[in-house]
Amino acid sequence: MNGYSMNDLRRWSGVRVAITGGTSGLGLALVRELRARGAEVALIARHREQVERMASETGAHGIVGDMSNKEDIHRIAMQILGRLGGLDVLVNSASSLGPVPLALLADTECEDFELALATNVLGPFRLTRSLLGALAATARERGSAVVLNVSSDAAVNAYATWGAYGASKAALAHLTRIWNEEMIGEGVRFLNVDPGDMDTSLHALAVPDADRSTLKRPEEAAREMADVIAGALFERRAVESSASDMRLGPGLRRDDESGRRRDDCPRVIPGERSEVRDPICDMRLGPGLRRDDETVR
């Protein structure tokens, strides 16, 4: 009925997943995708009415909380573990553009920059740290656990007016690599995935005149992202490199699949832009170079 084989459903049965920003955009699409595959899912978002509606619609556990608010994080973590009874996969998908409309750095208010950092960097750090013991316990018991942080090509390319968002996503990407270096020996994989430009409400805020017909559907990105999670969770192997930075699309590979390390990647000269990127060193979902549009969903 849902297009997945019995083997797929058996594989995902009992897998416990928490997804922040889970009431719209990519977060909601991923909730629906993983529920269809048979996973047990908890969705986290700020607005109670939306959380309750989407939880009822998808059969996921709904948790109300603001990733930018330090005081919410411990309660969110405890509710995740209480509802799911443990955790196999954490997806940090909630994020903030910072200023809306987008603004030059010189015109960006400190409060807007702080919001981007709090939502896109400190929130994922705090929640991951709070759940790290549970993830490590899962890895010991089941052989693997995964943390996936939603990234953007704005983390590696300098785009005017995207300063708060790009700087925060760059910090998250490097944080992901460090987490992976520290936790891979415990069986916990950290993945940094750029889904590409999608047709979401935040993209409409960021680029109101964009041609929606050219944008990827969140459902497509969710299917690709679920496959990435499955590969890391169910097909774990020895990894020598740092965190897997991915751009999902044709020729999907992780930077640990070729025997090459990120130290082998070509150096980028500040101020220069190139449309050609090494397929091992910098990957994303979908063709072309596009900004990520994920939001607090």
Mean pLDDT: 84
Q: Quote the CATH topology.
A: Rossmann fold
- According to CATH, the homologous superfamily is NAD(P)-binding Rossmann-like Domain
Question: What is the count of structural domains?
Answer: 1
Rg, nearest Å: 18 Å
Structure summary, number of beta strands: 7
Instruction: Write down the oligomeric state.
Output: single chain
From the spread of the alpha carbons, the general shape counts as globular
Distance between the termini: 28 Å
Percent helix, as a range, is 40-55%
Widest beta sheet: strand line-up: 3-2-1-4-5-6-7
The top-level CATH class is Alpha Beta
State the major sheet.
7 strands, parallel
Helical segment count: 8
Overall SS class: alpha/beta
* Percent of residues in β-strands: 5-15%
Task: Give the uncertain stretches in residue-range form.
Answer: 237-242, 250-283, 287-297
Order of helices and strands: HEHEHEHEHEHEHHE
- CATH architecture type: 3-Layer(aba) Sandwich
What does the model show?
The chain is 41% helix and 12% strand. It is an alpha/beta fold. It has one domain: Rossmann fold, CATH 3.40.50.720. Mean pLDDT is 84; it is low at 237-242, 250-283 and 287-297.
Task: Kindly list the characteristics that best describe this protein.
single chain; 297 residues; alpha/beta; Rossmann fold; 7-stranded parallel beta sheet; 8 helices; 41% helix; 12% strand; disordered C terminus
